[in-house]
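Hey all, sorry for the wall of text incoming. These are the two entities for the joint prediction.
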Amino acid sequence: MSASGSNLKVAILGFGTVGSSVARILCDLKPQGIELTHIYNRNISRKLADWVPCEVQWTEEVEDILASNVDVIIELVGGLDPAGSWVRRALEAGKSAVTANKKLIAFHGIELEKLARSKGGHLLYGAAVAGGIPVIPGLQQGLAGDQVMRIEGILNGTCNFILSKMEDGAEFGDVLQEAQALGYAEVDPTEDVDGYDARAKLVILSRLALRADLDPNQIPCRSIRDVSAIDFAYARELSCTIRQISRAEIRGANLATGDVLASVGPMLVPKASPLAWSRGTENTVLVGGKYGGDVVFSGHGAGGHPTAVAVVSDVISIAHGSRAVDLPSRKTTIGGEFLLRHSIRFVVNDQPGIIAEIALALAEQGINIHAIFQKPGFGKGNLPFVVTVEPCANSALKRALARIGAMKCLLEKPFHLQILEPEETAG
Amino acid sequence: MSASGSNLKVAILGFGTVGSSVARILCDLKPQGIELTHIYNRNISRKLADWVPCEVQWTEEVEDILASNVDVIIELVGGLDPAGSWVRRALEAGKSAVTANKKLIAFHGIELEKLARSKGGHLLYGAAVAGGIPVIPGLQQGLAGDQVMRIEGILNGTCNFILSKMEDGAEFGDVLQEAQALGYAEVDPTEDVDGYDARAKLVILSRLALRADLDPNQIPCRSIRDVSAIDFAYARELSCTIRQISRAEIRGANLATGDVLASVGPMLVPKASPLAWSRGTENTVLVGGKYGGDVVFSGHGAGGHPTAVAVVSDVISIAHGSRAVDLPSRKTTIGGEFLLRHSIRFVVNDQPGIIAEIALALAEQGINIHAIFQKPGFGKGNLPFVVTVEPCANSALKRALARIGAMKCLLEKPFHLQILEPEETAG
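and here's what came out:
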């Protein structure tokens, strides 16, 4: 209930898939002390739903809501503008805001939380990362007593859908089309497949888990577009699959003394890792604590209903006077690269001396070959094979591959993937 | 910080494994606004640790702490008495309490939470279920907006250690001894292996997730003592493993209209289920929501450090003025039995007519046989085989087995296990 003891008045901004799920859950469950009063959308006449109680005001004017006595706005419009300015104005007016807007929180979350606190309101964003999986409340409440040293996650359901379909033999382009037809991918899939969506979520998790405030633009992102079905065949040889992995880690005893490493992109993931288990649009987040060891969260990371659960849970928290634990974070620059094993796939017109030349180029960068193998069934004129190398920096490998790329026998650009190593940070 | 704005004064009651881990984390991380002031234990001279700051008072007298200006007691003594009366007295004095005591919360949690609220204090018990895995804050904060229809969990690390070792071929008695030597099992392992520890945790989770307040004594518990290595061999034939599963479920649209079913005991778990993945002392909890679908939490459920993380997180929540969302529950009686497929292992002196007699006894109870199979390598004089049956109530199967048990050819009592079916409650 609001400070006055009366019901908490709630407005939904954006009546798309998530917004209508939020309204549906509020109407079905009728959580105590919460009253849906307004729904905003453009072209509202297209949106009117007969199952919404008639007391609810439908409006095309955000100003009506910002000027009203609504206690909480639920921002589900997305993007930085105008959604960000609506959230800011609501907080300035002493209202609380609940949002699923990962981009807004990644870029402006710290400033907006400060604003909320200074005006006596709340800013909650449990739906911004991993939809219906309570990772954010888990970090703010349940793991606040640990010192989290690393996070690894499958944070983008679209990429996971595509890659788990490719694991069954399909090619990227075909699955992307299927994902678009199913509504899992946008017409322009850049945000998802090139890693920017996951990167915004990684920034939010790094802030809460590692207490490191990273600049999204500093985090290297690699697209999953270049992964092909043959890479899954070689992944199987290594007892791995391929997933888009977002990871951030403190190297050293803690944030004050250690570097933070972070990246987003396709990786080889050992089948024994919990990160290899999620199928379809599921999300998984692994949190490695110094004291508590590894904790894994998994479930439906997107979709109207799961995301709406996170939104409604945040509204209930506010209604119950529950405050998010304020976890102080510090501005942190990324201080290096992960040193990881890599797998490199070559496709060549086979001839003597190829391995020698590759080995030399790797050796020049201080990179040791671990294994070389090829799947049977290909002719010498179009021969794919894979080289795995011992832990090295991505940048060193790229320098070696730049030199190797000039080799005439290559039929395709070499394609490399980092291998996610199982690590145990438990105390 | 406490109401007065000064540091929150915290006392640890019980300086065993968890208590000393709590002190260690408080001393290492120095969470803002929290001050460890007292440590209570019997025979305190055995316990004194030189890394604890000298300002901390060590005492053998709980009364000193209850009479002091301590804001929060951390109760890690366990059991109903005297720990329960200490918590009650602290709450009556307006202090807050953080506890890992599942038994106390299972039997008296509702009354104690009411007391805490009436006196302006808090009662938090994130460590009471699944140690370092933030299931309780996940339910109270992140899933409060869903209607949870079922929970399934591996809630007892000792049983999971024993059963995952048996999966690798060991027999119960040997692994129990190993678990005792490692400190994972008590000298009297009854609470763990017979299911009472898991049952108390299931009661707590049912209250928070299903909003059903169950009487622990009503929940059927079955021991894992009778599981033997051969059962794992047959489980593999069914693509299953065996785990101690605690489950509770609402049958019907919601708690007001549906029955609650609950049980604790060994079950066949399909290898594809997340509940089959936890090894060693790990815990896993699956929460099935009407709107958000299945969410899985897994990690270290016990041990000093993981449990201490949950305790310290609760203390931090109190220090930050964060309140647990009060999820109203209602007194609920268990209204029936799970209808599940079963697997029954027989060991016989083989002779004609055995299957006919078993089939008849099952048919009399309306139970259909699904499959019959046996592993090679056994003689006719000591032949184990397995019968799987279509979904039926445990009680009906028990009646059939009572009749079958009188058959002269049986060399052992038939041993039956329920099969955990994958179910999807997502909306």
